[in-house]
Design brief:
- The structure is a homodimer.
- With about 325 residues, chain A is of the alpha/beta class.
- Chain A folds into two domains: about 180 residues, Rossmann fold, CATH 3.40.50.10680; about 90 residues, no CATH class.
- In chain A, about 40% of the residues lie in helices and about 15% in strands.
- Chain A has a seven-stranded parallel beta sheet with strand order 3-2-1-7-8-9-10, with helices on both faces. A three-stranded antiparallel beta sheet of chain A has the order 5-4-6.
- In chain A, strand 8, helix 11 and strand 9 form a beta-alpha-beta unit.
- The longest helix of chain A is centred in the first third of the chain and has 13 residues.
- Chain A starts with 6 loop residues before the first strand and ends with a helix.
- The interface between A and B is medium-sized, with 30 and 30 residues.
Chain lengths: ~325, ~325
């Protein structure tokens, strides 16, 4: 099979999924994004509460990444956030579009499909679960934090580590997500916020079994920067060991770790938000039989400290 | 020139423009809708106030009528009105789309163009003016009513006739509307609410001059039913004579009047809203040198008392 025809599944949420899909889109024809349904903040949180629907924000970002439309305005429009209006300020246009389509079709997955048609999305976006559940976290001091946003933007002391996270009530894997994983040639997890974008996918009942059962290679992209309140002081091994503890053994085939440190000048912009460079401490990673951590320069040459699309694409072509 | 290539301009607002455009779309390639900017009610009114923008509602309806998209969901989506959500309930999705595009482009006409691209609109929709103005009415008892919605949905005694309407402040004709009128082969006014959808277009400074100057034939479709508070007890001659008083002499070439009365059973549905059949009283119409009123059966065979699309198309092909 030509590489371009291989089936690739990306699991995550937030901007990480966007980055990976954008990197893969020019090279691969068969892309599926499986996105977390734990988001409960901002525009998405309001729609979730007022419409009793699943959160549209991560769906929207993935659809935009997959859009093949020449109409640049369409992507701008989907990402546009209203600044004015008593009832509109803060809402993202694409979220409202998915909400309206959900109400018209009365089917969340069909609403995503219709939004994809409008954007001419090449690839599928699949909610990890169709069940509504809240993400909870227990901190090392015993505190319980309720809701993805409260974990993500901590009111609590951000230096206290997260002990564990779970979903309440339990949520079951979306059959379409399961099917995509079982049929995939490669499953990519991350990059993304560990506890709030990645692990919520792994908490869904049936996900670990599907990842154990699939013949696909499973690869994890560690983050470039830590996040205060979530992965404070984490090195690459902390990311990997934590993910492994939720994934179960023998699932992960590769971890792809950035080894290029940004200049002090670029890092200076992150001091305020207490984010630090993730050190590639290979020696601390727990190794399994089939698991191989690899390091490479994955850094975007300038600007924000982000993964470079072309470097991600190269790394993925290497392991496919 | 083949009839299909003739340039047709439709002037109005509300559902009347939608009906005429829908009738013309299969037969003519060169359609322009010039729509009133006086609407200040509902979703449009809120957006107008909160975003300081021109009203999107009539634009939206005309764009949907011109859409050539196979995607039926797209028209449903544009027309969808949110039922839930503290800030969203009552807003029409298409209005929010035009609002977001307006903010992104910072240009109302470009926003309309971009919305048209998404809908694959065949034809143009042009706001009659780019100036913001309010519609005011003086009733026969001297009362002044401010705002299109207050005139349209009267809190005042609906039996008291409207003496005159005007815009405050004055608004100037959009140059693109002027251009379309001057280049047209046929200009159609109405059907539509006389004081709130049609005359607000004629009040715009430069409109009468453009209609006097154009070589296009100018035709007016009278309404099928009266509207309580606006055209209470009006017969066809009242519609035509009133319109003429705002148009000036020698502008109108034809008035096209329905002569088919719906069954008492169909009319029974209109008793509650105090709407009555408009009698085709040809004898009371003031005639000018070049003006000819004609009557025909324009009634939709069943259902709501509306103009029939095919009959409108036939009438227009006759006078072209």
């Amino acid at each position: 099979m030509k590489q371009a025809n291989k089936k690739i599944v990306v699991i995550g949420g937030g901007t990480g999924v966007f980055t990976v899909l954008t990197a893969l889109k020019p090279h691969f024809k068969n892309l599926t994004a499986i996105v977390t349904m734990a988001d409960d903040g901002g525009s998405t949180g309001i729609l979730r509460e007022e419409f009793g629907m699943l959160p549209p924000g991560d769906i929207r970002r993935a659809l935009i990444a997959l859009s093949a439309s020449d109409n640049k305005m369409l992507a701008n429009l989907f990402s546009y956030r209203f600044q004015e209006g008593v009832g509109l300020a803060g809402h993202t246009f694409g979220n409202l579009l998915i909400t309206a389509l959900h109400r018209i079709t009365d089917d969340f997955e069909q609403a995503i499909e219709e939004a994809g048609k409008i954007l001419l999305a090449e690839g599928k976006v699949v909610p990890v679960t169709l069940d509504r559940a809240q993400l909870l976290a227990e901190l090392e001091d015993g505190q319980i934090i309720k809701g993805e946003t409260n974990i993500d933007i901590p009111n609590h002391d951000g230096r206290i580590k997260i002990k564990r996270v779970w979903l309440k009530p339990e949520a079951a894997l979306n059959p379409n997500a399961r099917k995509a994983i079982l049929e995939a040639d490669l499953v990519i997890i991350g990059p993304g916020d560990l506890y709030t974008s990645l692990i919520p996918n792994l908490l869904v009942k049936g996900m670990r079994e599907a990842l154990q059962k699939t013949k696909a290679k499973v690869a994890y992209f560690t983050n470039l920067m830590t996040k205060f309140g979530e992965t404070n002081n984490f090195s690459a091994s902390d990311f990997i060991n934590t993910l492994q503890s939720y994934l179960g053994k023998e699932v992960l085939d590769f971890a792809i770790i950035n080894n290029r440190k940004p200049s002090p000048r670029r890092l200076a912009g992150y001091i305020k938000e207490r984010a630090e460079f993730v050190e590639p401490d290979l020696g601390n990673i727990r190794l399994n039989k089939n698991f191989m951590p690899v390091t490479a320069d994955l850094l975007r040459p300038k600007g924000f400290v982000r993964h470079d699309s072309e470097k991600i694409a190269k790394a993925i072509r290497m392991i496919l």
